[in-house]
Amino acid sequence: MYRARENFEINNVCLIPAPFYLLFIYMTLENSIRSSKITQLVKFVERNSPLFILTGAGCSTASGIPDYRDKQGDWKKHKPVQYQDFVDNELTRQRYWARSMLGWPHISNAVPSEVHYALAKLEQAGQIEYLVTQNVDGLHQQAGSSKVLDLHGNLEKVRCLDCAYYISRDVLQKQLLSANPQFEPTEIKLGPDGDALIETLDFSTYNIINCPLCHGSLKPELVFFGESVPAHRVSLAMQHLQDAGALLVIGSSLMVFSGYRFCRAAKLADKEICVVNNGKTRADEELDLKIDEDCNAVFTQLVETLGL
Ligand SMILES: [Zn+2]
Fold it and tell me: How many helices (H) and strands (E) does the chain have?
């Protein structure tokens, strides 16, 4: 009887195909690694708060705004416009504003995702000293965070390159649309900075809007590639980093120096660094904790575990 049951169990085991076993073992291992990482992140937050948070494009991908780089930290197809090219070439400005006009509805209608709301909850719980974002979409503020610095500026404002004229992006959008009825809003693929990824249009026919006061070129109040972050913003951020317990980077590959500099400064000040990013980062060798996962899933679990 005993032997028969043993044979049955053995036969049963043998009937289940090996790949399913391996998948089950893999999923169990993966879940246990993830929950151990979350436990480490909870301890990191408890040990080091208030934290200095640095966020990048990976925070906004779930809101429908793509990021610039792939998991290896290399450029995806979209390469952003360079500052000098924008200033020097009318055709670059025509191309920029045409694509920006078509992409703007997608940016202005984007809503925050779980990670934005989780960070707002962490701030309300007193766990955040300051949040510095490399994103230009305003989604942290929309989710309720108030201690936010837009390191690279914000898409909502546009300024004249030659005088003090400012205009809101929403108002400018109406002017751009009425000056360019030939550029019909169509189905578009969106780039990271609100840029519609379209190459097939004849941009030379696009009517750009210049400054009504001095006829200078208008530019979004963003730090373009090839342009420096204003020194006062960097020094404000650095002061907060000194007052924080540690650096927590979320959704950034840190490939651009404007973000990586905070890792350097944290190291020099002997502060711990944790990165939550889906893919490789420039600082991987210098981290105290790395969580190579989607930040929305990680931060949803973090605030649940903290009871926020
Ligand atoms: Zn002007």
Answer: 10, 9
